[in-house]
């Protein structure tokens, strides 16, 4: 039987994810349900199923699918979890999280990105996701504490307010390091007595910046 081009692209996309180490079936299913082409606009849309980061508005990027998959997998989201994502960008990562968690909050410092991402969330009828324009380095105190926190922009160190808004037993995954150099993806677990830090892999993300963007 012949496969449609879309089905074939989808199969190659999932194959690429598996070959890069994304093996968690819940994560793969969530990524299969989330069409990356919707989140990539303009002339890069036809490259949406390739495993590479792509430019979005406001000089930002939508992450490489395999990195999205590995970060989501490292976050170990359970179906009852309340999750915070810092760095909505295109909304792609948040949409994936919405399939895995009970409730997702996502924040970005750029109004333009927020407006575009919200339009897609509405179009996809995602009802367990709330998106705000805010400086995410302060977290989201009104909704804290969180079971899981995912940061998709690089800070030099894990921001204190985010550590404080993590539940005991909770997990945060984030890139740390100087911008423009190799950063480390780390996993932080909050224990009864403190925090446990684990280095996962080198990554490259745009920087976590202070304050709101002017667009
Ligand atoms: N997760 C996104 C990609 C993120 S790119 C996706 O799936 O497409 C990183 C994003 O972090 C950018 O959109 C940038 O505006 C945002 N960002 C940087 N610093 C921030 C901060 N302090 N608070 C909130 N968002 C921030």
UniProtKB/TrEMBL annotation:
UniProt keyword annotation of Cytoplasm present: yes
Superkingdom as given in the UniProt entry: Bacteria
PROSITE patterns membership: PCMT (PS01279)
GO molecular function terms attached to this record: protein-L-isoaspartate (D-aspartate) O-methyltransferase activity
Subcellular location: Cytoplasm
Transmembrane parts of this sequence: none
CC per GO annotation: cytoplasm
Active site: residue positions: 63
Keyword terms: Cytoplasm, Methyltransferase, S-adenosyl-L-methionine, Transferase
Matches recorded under PANTHER family: PROTEIN-L-ISOASPARTATE O-METHYLTRANSFERASE, PROTEIN-L-ISOASPARTATE(D-ASPARTATE) O-METHYLTRANSFERASE
Family (UniProt): Belongs to the methyltransferase superfamily. L-isoaspartyl/D-aspartyl protein methyltransferase family.
Function: Catalyzes the methyl esterification of L-isoaspartyl residues in peptides and proteins that result from spontaneous decomposition of normal L-aspartyl and L-asparaginyl residues. It plays a role in the repair and/or degradation of damaged proteins.
Protein's UniProt name: Protein-L-isoaspartate O-methyltransferase
Gene: pcm_2
